[in-house]
Amino acid sequence: MAETKRYISKQELEKHKVPGDLWISMQGKIYNVSDWTKDHPGGEAPLLSLAGQDVTDAFIAYHPGTAWKYLDKFFTGYYLQDYSVSEASKDYRRLVAEFSKMGFFEKKGNVTLFTIFLVALLFTASVYGVLCSESTWVHLICGGLMGFSWIQSGWIGHDSGHYQVMSSRGMTRVAQVLSGNCLAGISIAWWKWNHNAHHIACNSLDFDPDLQHIPFLAVSPKIFSSFTSYFYDRKINFDSFARFLVSYQHWTFYPVMCLARLNLFAQSFALLLSKRRVSNRGQEILGILMFWIWYPLLVSCLPNWGERVMFVLSSFTVTGIQHVQFCLNHFSSNVYIGAPTGNNWCEKQTQGTLNISCSPWLDWFHGGLQFQIEHHLFPRLPRCHLRTVSPFVKDLCKKHNLPYNCASFYMANVMTIGTLRAAALQAQDLSNPVPKNLVWDAVNTHG
């Protein structure tokens, strides 16, 4: 006699979403992943954020088909009662299957090799100009070239956090540490931890770290009453200091982006020196130390302090373009408060994301961010295929009445400044009292 299946309700599943008791549903089967948080390659944040609900689409988005065979050891023996799949999810899963059959997830093209060559060229030119020229203008240009090399190395780090960019995992790890830690001074471990949380909780004000920029920036007045960051695991206060800065954020946005790299340096050190579990901590720290040896040494080769400051500001300002790019894709899109949900993956990813329209010859400049909707729906897809799959994604959005927002680079900037200005004007309303200034937030909030 066949064994009778055991079912639990959605309400019962929702009870299992606290550390040490994490259950998820995939295709109607219930899995206990409580002990998997410490070994999960994507970190614990995705599991903590999505526990207690169906996560099939998120799992499909982030894992190849071969990952399903590893789930059996987590199966509880329970099935989800009244499990159903929306029409949008059915079509989304068909697209994933079709792209897989076409080899899109495995064929990575020559984008990474081209980017590595470009990074090496820009870096070499910058170093050569500093060491072999006495011209102040050449030194200024060399600072800009260094900034451009950081932008391109950032695309390698971004891609490698989503899929294997080199021929093997070992070589991909080498590319990550060299392009991120050694060349740019940014911990790839921090980047993956932060970026995975962003993808899972796209545009959630209290779960998405890429929207938690208090005290410098606030994209919505919804957080003016202070809120709890579930990513940083602490309360973020909107005090008088934050109100002052946010009140003028539409004017300070670009200057803040020019210096945003300082915060990434600080966040990298904060993670690597924390008690949080970090894979390959030794490699990460060694890579960061390499950066803090060669970069100050190169700057010291300049003839005077004026040119040294000019070089640093030039490199930081140019790489600020990339920080602006990250903001354009989400700042002017729909935001919400609360935990991300797994049963409306397509809706949440498309509602919180904006594409940038550009010619194919500019794809190298945007690094895949111009097809941010496609990237958020299919994060494992190499960026060389994003333009190819764009028509399919447009059809999916049109069929299921999902937003597919796209704007030029210029208009995206206009929309972002408009969003910041609208929030700034509300912050200038002094009718609502705010807590006493807490400078600690200025140091510890990602922004």
Automatic annotation (TrEMBL):
<dbReference type="InterPro" id="IPR036400">
    <property type="entry name" value="Cyt_B5-like_heme/steroid_sf"/>
</dbReference>
<keyword id="KW-0349">Heme</keyword>
<feature type="transmembrane region" description="Helical">
    <location>
        <begin position="285"/>
        <end position="305"/>
    </location>
</feature>
<dbReference type="InterPro" id="IPR001199">
    <property type="entry name" value="Cyt_B5-like_heme/steroid-bd"/>
</dbReference>
<keyword id="KW-0479">Metal-binding</keyword>
<keyword id="KW-0560">Oxidoreductase</keyword>
<feature type="domain" description="Cytochrome b5 heme-binding">
    <location>
        <begin position="5"/>
        <end position="80"/>
    </location>
</feature>
<keyword id="KW-0472">Membrane</keyword>
<feature type="transmembrane region" description="Helical">
    <location>
        <begin position="137"/>
        <end position="158"/>
    </location>
</feature>
<comment type="similarity">
    <text>Belongs to the fatty acid desaturase type 1 family.</text>
</comment>
<keyword id="KW-0408">Iron</keyword>
<dbReference type="GO" id="GO:0016020">
    <property type="term" value="C:membrane"/>
</dbReference>
<protein>
    <submittedName>
        <fullName>Putative fatty acid desaturase</fullName>
    </submittedName>
</protein>
<dbReference type="GO" id="GO:0016717">
    <property type="term" value="F:oxidoreductase activity, acting on paired donors, with oxidation of a pair of donors resulting in the reduction of molecular oxygen to two molecules of water"/>
</dbReference>
<keyword id="KW-1133">Transmembrane helix</keyword>
<keyword id="KW-0812">Transmembrane</keyword>
<feature type="transmembrane region" description="Helical">
    <location>
        <begin position="253"/>
        <end position="273"/>
    </location>
</feature>
<dbReference type="Pfam" id="PF00487">
    <property type="entry name" value="FA_desaturase"/>
</dbReference>
<keyword id="KW-0443">Lipid metabolism</keyword>
<feature type="transmembrane region" description="Helical">
    <location>
        <begin position="170"/>
        <end position="191"/>
    </location>
</feature>
<dbReference type="InterPro" id="IPR005804">
    <property type="entry name" value="FA_desaturase_dom"/>
</dbReference>
<dbReference type="GO" id="GO:0006629">
    <property type="term" value="P:lipid metabolic process"/>
</dbReference>
<dbReference type="GO" id="GO:0046872">
    <property type="term" value="F:metal ion binding"/>
</dbReference>
<dbReference type="Pfam" id="PF00173">
    <property type="entry name" value="Cyt-b5"/>
</dbReference>
<dbReference type="InterPro" id="IPR012171">
    <property type="entry name" value="Fatty_acid_desaturase"/>
</dbReference>
<feature type="transmembrane region" description="Helical">
    <location>
        <begin position="111"/>
        <end position="131"/>
    </location>
</feature>
<comment type="pathway">
    <text>Lipid metabolism.</text>
</comment>
